[in-house]
Amino acid sequence: MENIQMLLKQGAVGKPCASIVAVGDKVKRGQLIATPTGLGANVHSSVSGEVIDITEDRIIIKPDDEQSKDYVKIPEEITDPLEMIKYAGIIGQGGAGFPTFIKIYNGKENKPVLDHGYILVNASECEPGLAHNIAQIDADPETLLRGIHYLMDIAGADKGIIAIKKKHRETIEKLDALLKDDPAIERHLLPDIYPMGEERAVVRECLGIELEPSQLPSAANAVVINSETVYSCAKAVEDRKPLIDKNITVRGMIKGGSEAHVFMDVPVGRSVQALIDEAGGFDERGYGEVIMGGSFTGKATTLDAPITKATGAILVTRPFRDLHGAKVGILVCACGGNLERMQDLVKKYNGTECHVCYCKQAAEMPNGTRKCERPGNCPGQVKNNLEFKKAGCEYIIIGNCSDCSNTVMASGPKMGLKVMHMTDLAMMAVGHPLYRTLRVSKKVDQDLNVVDNPEDNETVE
Ligand code: SF4
Question: What residue's CA is closest to ligand 1, atom 7?
Fold first, then answer.
């Protein structure tokens, strides 16, 4: 196995942890190697081996030749489930990587964060082409339910709701069979459009409460937790396992086809290159870029980059076509790439940045990031298209949700604008329809007895 790189900051939020090991130390898989210096969560070694370097942002470990699935367990003296989750270093595994123990318990006031509220489990696997969350639920729905109960007890919830896309019919049937005997947990079906996994979209869909961009789910007496994170909490409580392994989807321009390669329990810190190799290696037709994360919210990465506790996917895209310097307008959405990411794409297409617009619902937050005011419900994009036209753009590149891409298409092409979506090259590589026009209604029938075409809410070219 290649050298393992354990980043001292595993998620997008918080401060880097401080190493508690030294170069030359022998470490065991599961051993605590770094602790928080502020907002953050413990980091444990995902392999047994020797620490060969410690830099400002990572601990590098040379793995022993022999590795085992065993690990150093959470110490016996820790018996409280909240403390186990804290010690295990669990962070949200579906996105920003916020420490879970803080999300579910108010340590300052020493009380649960909810008052007879809701644990909303985000099983939407919202980014297109990903498959590891549903594969995990499919393989072991029982542990998911036990994990929800642990979280409900800690957070002060009376109810758990699993939010899952209606297209996962077999998984839903497995869950339904178990939920018959578990009245505290139910499931809610989501339409297959982006961004149904956005926290406030999950709250809106499950509870019918529309939150402001600045509000957290706690304003709706709810906590939203990604399904893989629920499993990690259950493993911390039941198996005393620290968060050292990650499930991941590798997909795209990989030898052998565009099907998803789902790897379960990959040691955190393995490299992008190693996982692409294990999936079969690069397709000989070449590729454009490698994205770490989903095609909307992920970022271009390098082959030597390590996966973290929050990495959801490695996507290898189709090669970029050459726009020969054509003028490209950028339409930024709160739920897609930020301006920097979109500008990077324009360069990779060899386009010339011409004009920038923001979706008018992409509200700017005090920290400079943007959040959508009503995720997935488009305010209309004609005004932006007119601006692009006036600025002389030949192409526009958009990062919009399904609904807004649909409204861009309602006027953009009629004005002579050639529309590209930031996810196009990834979607072509994974065999997913391009984000352009919504084919049918977004309505979801919550009654599974009604047989719908699972393709109904897909977007098509
Ligand atoms: S409404 Fe606008 S900001 Fe919100 S998801 Fe759609 S494109 Fe993004």
Answer: 400
What's 282's DSSP letter? B
Cite the DSSP H helix spans in 398-445.
402-411, 424-430
Give 295's strand partners.
Answer: none
Rounded to 5 degrees, what are φ and ψ at 160? -115, 140
Q: What is the spatial distance between Cα 392 and Cα 134, in angstroms, rounded to a whole number?
A: 44
Q: Which two tokens stand for residue 92?
A: 């949200």
Is residue 93 in contact with ligand 1, taking CB distance under 6 Å?
A: no
Q: How far apart are CA 461 and CA 454, in angstroms?
A: 17
Distance 360 CA to ligand 1 centre (A): 8
Q: Ligand 1 centroid vs 380 CA: distance in angstroms?
A: 10
What domains, with CATH codes, occur in the chain? Answer: 4-63 (2.40.50.100), 81-239 (3.40.50.11540), 245-316 (3.10.20.600), 327-438 (3.40.50)
Residue 329 parent element (H or E)? strand 327-332
Ligand 1 atom at minimal distance to the Cα of residue 379: 1
- Is the beta carbon of 337 within 6 A of some atom in ligand 1? no
Distance, CA of 23 to CA of 51 (rounded, Å): 5
CA torsion sign for 303, 42, 17, 123 is positive
What is the spatial distance between Cα 249 and Cα 133, in angstroms, rounded to a whole number? 9
Phi, psi torsion values for 149, nearest 5 degrees: -65, -40
What is the block-wise mean pLDDT of the chain (461 residues), using blocks of 10 residues? 96 92 98 96 98 97 95 97 98 90 95 96 90 96 98 98 94 96 95 82 93 91 97 98 97 92 97 97 95 92 96 95 96 90 96 94 84 79 93 94 85 92 92 78 45 36 32
Q: Which residues pair with 297 in a beta bridge?
A: none
Is the minimum distance from the CB of 359 to ligand 1 under 6 angstroms?
yes
